[in-house]
Amino acid sequence: MKQLHKIFLFVSTLSFTGLFAQTTTPVSGVMSADSIFNKYYQATGGKGLWDSVQTYTIKQTYRSGSANDYDLDILGSLPLEALSRTRTIMKRDFIYGIRGTDGWLKIPLGSRDKVTRYQTSDLSEKERETMRRELRDLLNAFDDYTQKGYIATVVAGTELINTKPAYQVELEGKTVKYNLYFDVVSGLLVREKLTLPANEIQTRDHSKYIKSTYGLLYPSESVLVSSIDKKSVKVTTVMDFNTRMAEDAFVR
């Protein structure tokens, strides 16, 4: 059971998440991180609309044509400081959750043709801290980024992403490094590269944005590639904001 726990915690790192940082003084002629982030806000619905979000839902599918394909269902509540992530693999739900300082993992027991029972175990402090960070980063990693204590460096010049020029912002924290690429014209985030502590690099290219019923734009179609297996995984995403949550959404 411990080995199964490790396998699904490894898979959980593939959920889209990032760290955004304290901006450094821009070099003359180079856009500041704030300017790039503000353009993203303007392109996706406005800072005021983002700031009004209190709860959100994310439904994703991860498809590579292999037995490792899975679905992801995420619920987040900022007032409750709670996050629930249900990962469905081969019709089996593995549920990760936090609320405040508490954190847990529910692993399904028994056969799939019977009523599902779960074995519940505690998440480690490191795992809980990661989910507490993800609670806000999954919604909008730019929110209050200067208070997170990370360093943001705008890389001089532009880089072509799918034949279009993009600004690059490098974000470096104590354990991870993020490289973010924003389309020069639209301001949208088109590529994310996350370097994990074990030096695995996860690259996510966003090819399509759609508008939610709440009015915010978000990436709905992406391709994820890990430096470990180098397989392309197609990711589809549906998000909604300020939706009513079930009373037991964040119950251990």
In short:
The protein is an alpha+beta fold and 252 residues long. The chain contains four helices and 14 strands. The two termini are 19 Å apart.
Task: Give structural notes.
This protein is of the alpha+beta class. It has one domain (2-241): outer membrane lipoprotein receptor (LolB), chain A (Clam). Helix content is 17%, strand content 45%. It is built from 4 helices and 14 strands. It has helices at 2-12, 33-44, 47-51, 125-140; strands at 22-23, 55-63, 70-77, 82-89, 92-99, 102-109, 117-122, 151-161, 164-172, 177-183, 189-195, 201-211, 217-226, 232-241. The chain has a 14-stranded mixed sheet, covered by helices on one side. The chain is globular and about 60 Å long. Residues 1-28 have low confidence and may be disordered.
Number of helices: 4
Stretches where pLDDT falls below 50 for ≥5 residues?
1-28
| Count of spatially separate domains | 1
Q: Strand portion, in percent?
A: over 45%
